[in-house]
Specification:
Length: 172
């Protein structure tokens, strides 16, 4: 059963990745978009709908057991620094959300979204889908991006649970 779920998850992730690339107009391109290629005037909802909704769904409820919800999520409405780190570098491995265990891979978006766009999408999800949390600024994202540096692999929940990987450096 675990192998079947894993294969289903990997197939879904591949399909979603291909759809995401297609939605950004890259069907005939040989390179992925960089921060400079993305539109600065996108709002948080637009970014969510093109980058996040294919896994987390338009209503933020995800797919139970496959893609965790962002709706009513303590991971979204909790520590700003943890959420930004997940968006910038992705998340891998086991995480429990609303009493359901997920074990997958969230892609890193830090190479595709600039600080302003990360701030917009995180603020959007923190103020929608039943979440009611403080906005995240581009300055806070920039501090985290600089503090973390050139992290090459996705975070695990165990890593993000450590105090050094929470909050905004030189801030909250």
């Amino acid at each position: 059963m675990k192998v079947t779920n894993h294969l289903l998850f990997m197939g879904a992730l591949l399909l979603i990745s291909l759809l995401t690339i297609g939605f950004t107009g890259l069907q005939n391109s040989t390179t992925l978009p960089t921060i400079e290629d993305t539109e600065a005037d996108e709002d948080g909802e637009q970014i969510y709908m093109t980058r996040c909704q294919s896994c987390h769904m338009a209503n933020g409820e995800g797919v139970q057991g496959v893609f965790p919800p962002v709706a009513n999520s303590p991971y979204v409405s909790g520590d700003k620094g943890v959420l930004v780190r997940m968006i910038l570098h992705g998340l891998r491995g086991e995480i429990v959300v609303q009493d359901v265990t997920y074990n997958g891979m969230m892609p890193p978006w830090g190479g595709f979204l600039n600080d302003e766009q990360v701030a917009k999408v995180t603020t959007y999800i923190r103020s929608n889908f039943g979440n009611d949390a403080e906005a995240i600024s581009a300055e806070e994202v920039a501090k985290i991006r600089a503090f973390v540096g050139e992290k090459k692999d996705a975070w695990t929940w165990e890593e993000l649970s450590k105090e050094d990987n929470q909050g905004i450096p030189d801030g909250e």
